[in-house]
Design brief:
Length: 403
């Protein structure tokens, strides 16, 4: 028998509380109708994160960032009570998409948020488009994500923003030959492409391009190839949480002693795990939009409050993506008095504010973030490892949008 395909966004029955049922029954007896919206002041946000599995640290940091913003600024905005519905997608795109559908249809969320990895954001984009729900990408960093739906706004960063700045720095700092080693999925491929293009334009040479799998990577055979190629430096990208294995194996295999430097997209020396990487990581130069060591009053207050609320954890760029993303949503709810959909999306576009990362702007045209990119060097300060900022490139737009 032929089964009709289920529409992606089937209309479900609205859940009615026992109290409201009693009220409704009374109202029907008395012969008048209840105003439909007046009772529901909740503004629901569906926060979809990898809370378990290999990218659980991303989910933990993001959720902590979102909750800190709400703790500091209140969960009331525009007369509506902000209610977070947090769901674990385990880092699997099919799960993310199913959860996004359920949140929109059953829970009636007015914003979808989170998205710890690029494939998770791409999987959910059609749900945002079809249901006309604003979707705030707080972590994923492949350039083209914002083009996957006109309902997407990004509060994280883009990989091309940071690796082009690194390619400029490398060329000015006597690095002539590199081997590129990236994780084999969209942001890794963006890293390889944008770094290589800029570095070769600057007169550098990319001797080899290597790609390691996203799941359970074994770096050993790749690092052997790096060693055999005798580059001045290894250029690398791996997603947040994975850098420890790479940096430890790099040192264990003696590549540092062989005179090979490491230059990297900043996720590699992610603040969440940097302290556990050991002295082999000292001197590594990276480019990124956020360091917990960023020297500003706003950031000092942020780091202090974050560490107080989450003992033993140092905030990384994922926490800041969550904190700033929650700011963008909170302000939009406030200025539209809780109207969802198009009005909310319009109020997110063009926001400009000081983030713990520095100045930040949501470009209304691209719905993408414009912010400073920092060149950083890993240093030991007061016994701990930090990404110390050594150069600032101001107000960087995503090069992927400049086509
Ligand atoms: C991504 O999947 O877009 C991504 C995830 C983690 C990172 C950077 C990019 O650190």
């Amino acid at each position: 028998m032929w089964n009709a395909p289920r529409p992606i966004l089937a209309v479900s029955s609205v859940r009615v509380s026992a109290a409201r049922r009693r009220l409704l029954a009374g109202a029907v007896c008395l012969g008048f109708a209840l105003p439909s919206m007046a009772q529901d002041t909740a503004f629901r946000i569906g926060l979809i994160l990898p809370m378990t599995g290999p990218f659980a640290s991303t989910g933990k940091q993001l959720e902590a960032g979102v909750r800190l913003y709400l703790a500091q600024n209140g969960d009331m905005a525009g007369g509506r009570k902000i209610t977070l519905i947090v769901k674990d997608d385990t880092g699997a795109p099919d799960v993310t998409k199913r959860i996004a559908q359920e949140l929109v249809v059953n829970d009636k969320v007015q914003v979808l948020a989170g998205f710890g990895l690029t494939p998770l954001a791409f999987a959910s984009a059609p749900v945002a488009t079809q249901s006309k729900t604003p979707m705030v990408v707080m972590a994923a960093a492949t350039s083209s994500i914002t083009e996957a739906s006109p309902w997407i706004v990004r509060s994280s960063f883009t990989v091309p923003q940071v690796v082009t700045a690194l390619a400029d720095w490398a060329a000015k700092n006597n690095i002539r030959k590199v081997v590129s080693l990236v994780t084999d999925y969209a942001p890794g491929i963006d890293s390889e492409k944008y770094f290589s293009q800029r570095f070769t334009t600057n007169g550098g040479q990319v001797l080899e391009t290597l790609r390691v799998p996203l799941r359970s990577p074994d770096f050993a055979p790749f690092l052997q190839k790096v060693r055999d190629a005798h580059p001045d430096a290894l250029f690398t990208f791996v997603p947040a949480g994975v850098g420890t294995a790479l940096m430890k194996q790099f040192a264990e295999r003696g590549l540092d002693k062989a005179g090979i430097r490491v230059i990297a997209e900043g996720s590699v020396t992610d603040d969440d795990i940097l302290n556990g990487m050991g002295d082999g990581v000292l001197g590594t130069v990276t480019a990124h939009h956020y360091s917990a060591a960023h020297d500003s009053a706003v950031n000092r207050r942020f780091v202090q409050a974050f560490m107080k609320a989450n003992p033993g954890m140092r905030p990384n760029f994922m926490a800041v993506g969550g904190y700033d993303g929650m700011r963008v949503i909170h302000e939009a709810i406030k200025s539209t008095r809780g109207a969802g959909g198009e009005a909310l999306l319009a109020a997110m576009k063009g926001q400009i504010f000081e983030s713990p990362r520095g100045p930040m702007f949501i470009d209304a045209q691209t719905r993408d973030v414009v912010h400073n990119v920092y060149i950083r060097r890993v240093e030991r300060v007061k016994g701990e490892l930090w990404n110390t900022e050594i150069e600032t490139i101001a107000d960087v737009k995503d090069p992927g949008k400049a086509r």
